[in-house]
Amino acid sequence: MTNDQRLPGRRTLLRLAAGLGTAGAVRVIAADPAGTPFRRPATPPEGSAGPPADLPARPFSYRLSPMTGSTAPRYRPSAPPVRSRPFEALPEIGRAMVLTFDDGPDPRHTPQILATLREHDVRAMFFVCGEMADDNRDLVRAIAADGHTIGNHSWNHPLVTRLSRAGVRDELGRTSDVVERVTGTPPLWYRAPYGAWNRYSFEIGAELGMEPMAWTVDTLDWTRPGAGTIVRRVRAGAAPGVVVLSHDAGGDRSQSVAALRRYLPELLDDGYRITVPRRR
């Protein structure tokens, strides 16, 4: 799956997505508390409870039933409404920004991104594709163990507006199933490939307990414009509540990795908190 060669109409689709606007008041969102350092959980002793290890394949059932509540309440918020537009910015998080990475995890680039985020003790959102998550379960665990938020980016990055309702359900449901199997927690956010949303994706996303997340600043890093250009785009778009779109897979993302190493400390020096949204 190569992001750079997926569909020729990507720019058109991104312009269409930008025209959708924001999802309105974000009263279901709260940022991580400032000044609360994340402690990487210790590896549980053998035989103790913890995130499930790789399990043998079983019939796919997650997408067929609503999430119900035997786990901690923070993992089972109330079912979201069916949106007509995705969230593009999070104005209620104060002087903070959200960094997001799509299409992974990828063993070449995701570990380097995780290392940079860990160095600066910040959390980000990773919108994973199910087939990549299934092939790289150790990286999914590493993302979760570092306290990052894992979102759903479909199974294999199709243009969902060309899919039937059953097709959209399969793409989102299979991915949520893999994430929950690996981490013990289902994703609570999703992002449509190419930013191309439709009624089916909003309805099925809500059925699976997920809120739709778009972006404010598109780095266009998938075009490989150079690390300096990526840095300039992030710095030019920096503002409270901004959601930045980058990629950790789908092609050569070495420029994205290099750019993050430059703009992340600059944003922190400018007084921005880098955080992730939490569902109330």
Oligomer: single chain
Strand content: 5-15%
Largest sheet: 6 strands, parallel
Distance from N terminus to C terminus (CA atoms, Å) equals 35 Å
Strands, total number: 10
Question: Top keywords for this entry?
Answer:
280 residues; alpha/beta; six-stranded parallel β-sheet; two-stranded antiparallel sheet; 8 helices; 10 strands; 12% strand; disordered N terminus
Detailed description of the structure:
The chain is α/β, with parallel strands linked by helices and 280 residues long. The chain contains eight helices and ten strands. It has helices at 10-18, 110-119, 130-135, 137-145, 165-183, 199-207, 227-237, 254-269; strands at 29-31, 96-102, 125-128, 149-152, 189-190, 211-212, 217-218, 243-247, 273-274, 277-279. Strands 2, 3, 4, 7, 8 and 9 form a six-stranded parallel beta sheet that branches. A two-stranded antiparallel sheet has the order 1-10. It is globular, with a radius of gyration of 17 Å. The protein starts with 9 loop residues before the first helix and ends with a strand. 42% of the residues are buried.
